[in-house]
Amino acid sequence: MKVNRHFSLTFVFGFPAVIAAMLLSLIAKNHFDSVEKDISNEFQRIEEVFKRTTKIVTALDYSFSNYYKSGNPLFLDHNKQVVDGLCQIWPIDSLLLAEGKTTDIPSVDIDYMLVGEESLCTETSSTYKSASEKIALAPILSFLSQLDEYHDGVHFIDKRGYVISSPEDFAKGLGKELLSTIKSRPYWQKTANNPDLLTLSGPAYRFDSLDHMISMTIPVFHKGEHQGMLSVDIDAGKLLAIANEHLAGRIDIIDTTLTSPRDSAAFYHKIELEGVASHHAMYYELNLIDEARHFFVYEKDSLIVAIIVYLFSVTIFFYVNSNIERGYFKDLAAKDPMTGLLNRRGLEAFWRSVEHDQLFALTVFDIDDFKSINDTFGHDKGDDVIRYMSRQISNSIRSSDVAARFGGEEFVVYLKGDDRETLIRTLQRVKSAVCSKSEDIIPNGFTVSGGVCIVETEQSKLNFEEIFKYADEKLYVAKTTGKDRIEF
């Protein structure tokens, strides 16, 4: 019986490590794909905010370009005051309700303020007249500023120097100096240079706080005459705040004409919006340490599975190794090391494992004058004779038959057959196969003798020792009556 080689320790630990590495690679790839998808979703969310903003700015532009109510003293419904040389005007009622409607229907919470030079509060001034033409649209600014959670304010900056703003906090923070220089600021210049487009500006600090703002602006024209600028402010901090907890880094937006991406920038994405003048791009700021920490936190279940697979595989290989080695040593204990045939222990184990339910023969073969062969040709040649005989016996019997060496020059053969004559012919053939070519091993060759016990089915309850003893007695008869024969 051939003994399979057991797995080496390198294989036992290495092969599961390869499998675990493949699993880890798959987990890492899936995690990377998930991160990439989440980043793509964040980019899409940001662009959707910009697209919604363009619609609001466009709607406001249409309203301001086409709707004026000249000479209507709407300021009668507003409060007005002069603070630090600036006129501030805001609505008396905080709830907007159409004329003739009752309070049973929903109203709109309005929050806006006009701020301009002191002349804005003078009803005879041209500034007052201009503002009165546009004040009817101020509630629309207030309403639209509340539509999107990312919008921080909607403003109309008139060329005459006054501002309509919602919410009013922005207007309250405007100073006289800032108001006088507003037309010289970069976002006003950029907007003026793109009369047919919306303009995206920022991120930049808001003048009255440390909040970052991104502005979507458009110039307003009426009958071909420039009236001012509409602006919707987007809270950059809120917009860029990542809601997805699986992302460890942060997203940033830059104006590529002013700023370059950081060295840690990844997934660079240029912002392209229809009808919008923009030189902006956004990217994901990658921090490898934070990404690794997130990977282990959010993929811990998969990593635990990979570790379990590795440990389980190593355990299985150790178990297989143990079984193979146990079988090897068991087989080794049942085999004759010189010939590879069963030894006495192996044959007895075989005897106990089979059903003796048909005619069989147990034969004991012995090499004649083996001591003389050893004395004449040496023990090495004697070993060659033993190995030769084991080969000839093995080649002359069926795979279902069994041959064993009981030590020295004694061999035992177990055969099954349908009748006595077949068993006798087979054993004679075995003897002939051994003797006929024995001259190839030593000069003049050698002979063998044998004793056979043929057991009928009804005698199969006899134990091995009894049958072997009977066959051995027959061998003795063959040895003492001329040798080179089989005694049945």
Automatic annotation (TrEMBL):
It is an enzyme of class 2 (transferase). CDD domains: GGDEF (cd01949), PDC1_HK_sensor (cd18773). The chain crosses the membrane at residues 6-27, 303-320. Residues 358-488 form the GGDEF domain. It comes from the Bacteria. One of its GO terms (cellular component) is plasma membrane. InterPro entries: Diguanylate_Cyclase (IPR050469), GGDEF_dom (IPR000160), Nucleotide_cyclase (IPR029787), Rev_trsase/Diguanyl_cyclase (IPR043128). This is diguanylate cyclase. It comes from Vibrio lentus.
